[in-house]
Amino acid sequence: MGNALANGFSQGACSLLLLATGSVAQAMPETSADEREFLAKIPKVTSATRLTDSVLNTPAAVTIIDRDLIDASTLLSVPELLRLVPGFQVALASGAVTTATRHGVADALERRLEVMVNGHAVYSPVHAFTDWNLLGIPLENIEQIEVIRSPNAPAFGGNATFGSVNVITREPFELRGQYLRGTLGSVDTRQGVARLGTQFAGMDAVATVQYDEADGFDAVNDHRRITGLRFHGQLPLGLSDTLSIELGYTDGETGADGQGSEFSPFRDRRLLGHYQVLTWRRNASNDQGMKLSVSHQFSREDDRYQVDVAPELSIELGYFNSDGSRIDVEFEQWLKPHPSLRLLWGASVRYDHVESDLYLARTNGEIGEWTGRVLGSAEWYASERLTFSLNALGEFSESADSKLSPRLGVNWRLAKGQALRASASRNYRLFSAAEQFVDYPIYLSDGTFVRQLFLATGPDAAPEQVDSLEFGYLFDQPLMGLSFDFSLFYERLKGAGAELLAPGRVRIRTDRGGGWTTRGFEAQVRYQPDAKMLIFGSYAWAKTKGSEPTRLDENGVMVDWQSLNDATPEHTLALQASRRFGRGWSGTLAIFHLDEMRWLGDGGPIDDYIRLDAKLAKRFRLSDAEVNIELIVQNLANTPYQEFRDDGVYERQGNHFDRRAFLQVSLGLP
C-alpha cells in the first residue's frame, strides 16, 4: 500500500511539474503590462474581523478560493472545494452527506465550522451543522469563498470555534444574460443549471434553477435528488445606498443510509428548505457605513418510518425528523474616526424554533429560544508597519450562560508585500437549544414505553471553550504573481460535547466530553504569473492529543474513555496546476493526499490515500453563444480508497471511492 501510494504521488507530482514547467519559460514574456496590473491586486477579506481589509492585515490565517481556482478545479461542489484548504478534511460520509472539518476530530455533522452565504449563517437551528444539500449555490454563481483557518468566534459566534467559511456570490449585474449547464457522469450523476440575469425597474436581478441527482456509493442507501431555486436582486437607492434581496428554495430526497435491517431499513429522507434575506447597506465616504439585514430560514427533514414488532403493534423511528426555523435581525456600523483607526460595532437578535414530536418529548415536541449578540472590532495603525487589532463578540442565550469571545492580533509589515502576524483568542460555543433538550423515548403504538434512546443533560450546559495561539508569515507580491502563507498554531478545546452510552443502551448527550489539543503548521502557495497559468498548493501537519468519554455506569460515573490522538490526520496535502494552452483549450491536474485518520460518529478509521484528478476543457464561440466543454476524471489512477469508513464499521457498508468521470457542457448567451 505504501509503495503504491508513493508511486502514485510521484507520478502525479511529475505530471503537475510537466504541466507547469512546460509553460513557465514562456509565461513571463507573454505577460503584458496590462495583465500584470490586473493581476496585481492584494486580496481583500471581510470574514476575519468583519472589517474589509488586506490579507496582510488580518489577525487570522485566510484562504481565498477565487473564480480562477473554481473554474480550474476538478471538484463539483462547495464543500469539496475545501479540499484545497490547508488543514481541512472533506469526506463523503455517504453519497448524500458531505462533511468538512478543520483539523479532524469530527463526525458527519460538523458543528464547529461556521458556514455562511454572503455573511448570513446557514447552519441548521436543529442540529447546529450545515446540510450542504440545502446550500443552493451553484459554483457558477460564486465570486469567491473566504475560509478563515483560525478559531473565529470573536467575529461570528460559537459555531465558528474552529473557523468559518463565507461563500460570496457574484453581483447580479455580472451575471446578465442566459446560461445553461449540464453534467453527466459516474454514479448516475445528472446535474443541470439554468440561469437568467436581467435588469428591471432599476434592479439588477438573477434567477437560477438547479437540479442534482446521483446514486452514491455501491450497495449503500445514499442517493440524492435535489432541486433548487435562487433569486438575487440588487436595487440602488441613491448614490450610497443599496437594497439586496436573496430568496432560495430547495426540495428533494436522499437515501437515509439505512442498513437494510429490520430497525434500519432502506428508505428515503425528505428535505425541504427555504430562506429570505433582505439587506440594506450604506457605503459613505472615508471608509464609513452601516448595514441592516433581516433574514428568515426554514428547514424540514422527514425520516419517519415504522417498524412492526408484533401483530398490530409497531414503533415509530426517525433519526432526522424535525422542522427548524430562524429569524435573525443584525445591524453593523463601521467608522473611521481617525486616519489611523477603524472601528466596527454591531448587534443582533435571533429566534430559533424547532419542532419534533419524536426527540423533543421533554418540551412537548417543540422548543423556542431567543439569543442575542453584540460585537466590536478595532484596527489601529500604530505606524506604517505595525497594526493592532482587537475584536470580540458576546453571546446571550435563554438556555446557557452568556460568554464573551475575544481576540487580539498584531501584524508587522517587514517590507512591501511581507508581513508577520500573531494572534491569541478565546472562543466559546454555546450549545443549541436542540442539543441541550433532546429527549427521545420509544413507545409502542399502544402507548407502552419501550426504552429511552437519546437524552440530553441540559439545559444550562457549560459551553465548549477553545483557546488559540497563532504565528504566521505572509508573502504577497502580485506583480510577481506569487503569494505564500505559513502559520504555526496551537489550539486547546475544553468541555467538548459528547454522546455517552449509559445503562439501558441510552445515549446521553453531555457537556462533560473531555477535550483535546492540536498543534502544527500550515502552508499555502499560489503562483499565477499571467492569465494563462495558475498553481496552488497547500500542506498541513497537525498532531492531536486528547480523549473523550464513551460510557457511564449505573451511578453516572464515566468509566470508559477513547483516545482522540488518531482523529486528526498528521499530513494533509493539495496541489492543483492549470494551464490555458491557446485555441480555447485548457487543462488541470490536481493531487489530494490525506493521512490515515479516524472519523467519529458513524465513521471509522481510514487508510491514507493519494488521489489524482484531471480536467481537459475546450472553450469556443458558436454564433453569439460561448460554449465550454469539460471532461473531468477524479481518482485517475483508479486506486480505490475509503472516504469515511470501511466495510463493517457499525455493521454498515463502507464507501469506497473508485475512478469517476464527468462530462460538463455549458452555454452562455448575452
Task: Write structural notes for this entry.
The protein is built from six helices and 42 strands. With 670 residues, it is mainly beta. The protein has a single domain, classed as Maltoporin, Chain A. The strands form eight sheets. It has a 22-stranded antiparallel barrel. Strands 3-8-9-6-7 form a five-stranded mixed β-sheet.
Concise summary:
It is built from six helices and 42 strands. By secondary structure, it is mostly beta strands. It has one domain (2-669): Maltoporin, Chain A, CATH 2.40.170.20.
Largest β sheet strand count, sense and barrel closure: 22 strands, antiparallel, barrel
Q: How far do the termini sit from each other?
A: 51 Å
Shape: globular
- What is the CATH superfamily? TonB-dependent receptor, beta-barrel domain
CATH topology: Maltoporin, Chain A
Number of domains: 1
Unreliable stretches: 1-15, 17-34
Looking at how many chains there are and whether they match, the oligomeric state comes to single chain
Q: What CATH architecture label applies?
A: Beta Barrel
Name the features.
6 helices; 670 residues; Maltoporin, Chain A; disordered N terminus; single chain; five-stranded mixed sheet; 22-stranded antiparallel barrel; 8% helix; mainly beta
